[in-house]
Amino acid sequence: MAIDIKGVLSPLSALGTLFEHPKTITYPEVKKEIPKGYRGFHINDLEDCIGCANCQEVCMNDAIDMIRADKEYNPKNSSACIPRIDYGRCCWCSLCTDVCPPSSLKLDSECIHAQRDADNFLYMPKNKKDIS
Amino acid sequence: MSEIQKAIKIFHGPQHPGITGNMSVELDLIGETIQKAQTHVGYLHRGFEKLIERRTVVQGFTIVCRICVPEPDPNEENYARAVETLAGLEISEKAKYIRTMVLEMARLANLFMWMGGQAGSIGLGLIPQWSVCDRDYMLDLFEELTGARVYHMYAFPGGVRRELPEGFLGRLSDLLDYYEKRIVVYNNTFFDNVVFKTRAIGVGIVNKDEALKNAYVGQTLRACGIKRDVRKDMPYLMYDKLDFDIPIQTEGDVYARALVRRDEMIQSIRILRQIIEQMPSEGDILQKIPKHRKFILPAEDTYVQTETARGAMSYYMAGDGTEKIRRMQVRGPSLIHGFTLLEKLLVDSQLSDVAMTMNSLGICPPEIER
Question: For residue B5, what pLDDT band results from cuts at 50, 70 and 90?
């Protein structure tokens, strides 16, 4: 039976990679840059939010509750309610941001949420003003 | 002691690194030779087809991508195209080009992942590490384009949800240059590897007549010498304006299917290069559609097909004049390959070939249990 010389020798070309730099990064010392537009945590511009509950209505996972705001952020918010997200249910489809009439609800690129307490999955979107 | 008394029964999966997802194969063995194989599913039933019936058109699109984890985009495309056909929506040329681009990017990402699984199934541990890394570069581009790495939720009834980021096509072109170099490396280390050839040639042979009779699809069909591809047979999006070949082989075994997939990667790169060149700079990416409670589908039905990296994926969709879809049925390659074909191919083969054969058929259990 003829020996497949090429088949034996050509895989040895993999040895060349021994002299290449690793392609991995040393997380957490070096963090990967998250691109602009990544669908991460919600932020809400409370000065613009009108409390219409469109986001709650479109969410098929029932991940959004409208809860009473601690103070009046926007005089045009007739319901005086703002959205709270349950990250145990959210699938980050961003339909809620698509249907937001004043475009106050958005997704930010921040995406790390490790908590021991399950109640911490109930997330109040940060006010855009506080972030910027 | 009779032969049947000497036989032992083992379950290959669902917790097994050689299985391609949440399913198992019940094997009757004498020694290491398989006497009988029976596929079992039911470990991942999520009932997507039923869930869709309770949602509006807009809400439904976010769950179809979960029907196949390694390749969600063809599901999004099928869903969007079926809704557009029923609702009479015409999407812009730019949106069509972007969707075609996303489908080909998904094909490449899926084929890199397949390569890892195929090489890993015969113990070539280096290739999976490389190919998963190379797939990740594509996921980086998906992340930039769609905002997510795996479940993109990008193709939407009426077009696509986001504009191309600035300089995106240039970065895609650079990645394709890199992939062209990598395919040469994979040729040397995997496709020409004597270990892979010895293991894969002559194993899992699919007969041409049987492939036609049982409606096998994708590489399983093309590795028997049958030139069938939905992109050519029933062109959708911009495929009729793009120049590409359908790679075929004639042997019908695991190795032939691997070679077809390798050649498809080369063709995908060729298609993407043409898309980069032809991409219109102007045009709407998303048509205006009614609000989600007012998006009514007429009482009609439609059937759409998309060529995935594993074969033809089809959706039947029927509306009933309300805001909800009356019925949606998914027909993917996995059902026929995972039951009819796999059970037959495994008889008289060796236990060590189960993972390799399964991987070469492109079986994705979530898609069986949609």
Answer: low
Model confidence at A1: pLDDT above 70: no
Q: Report the 3 state secondary structure along A44-68.
A: ECCCCCCCCCHHHHHCCCCCEEEEE
Total number of domains in chain B: 1
CB contact under 8 Å between B195 and A39, yes or no, is no
B70/B131 Cα distance (integer angstroms): 14
Largest interatomic CA distance in chain B: 77
For an interface test with A, the pick among B143, B146, B183, B323 (most A C-beta atoms closer than 10 Å) comes out as B143
Q: Residue B326 falls within a domain, yes or no?
A: yes
Looking at residues B208-226, what average pLDDT do you find?
A: 93
Is A127 part of any domain? Answer: yes
Range of the domain at B154: 46-368
| A29 phi/psi in degrees, rounded to 5 | -60, -45
Is pLDDT above 60 for B1? no
Q: Measure the N-to-C terminal CA separation of chain B; round to a whole number of Å.
A: 44
Q: What is the pTM of this model?
A: 0.94
| Chain A CB within 8 Å of residue B58 CB | yes
Q: Is the pLDDT of residue B117 over 80?
A: yes
> CB-CB: which of B151, B189, B197 is closest to A13?
B189
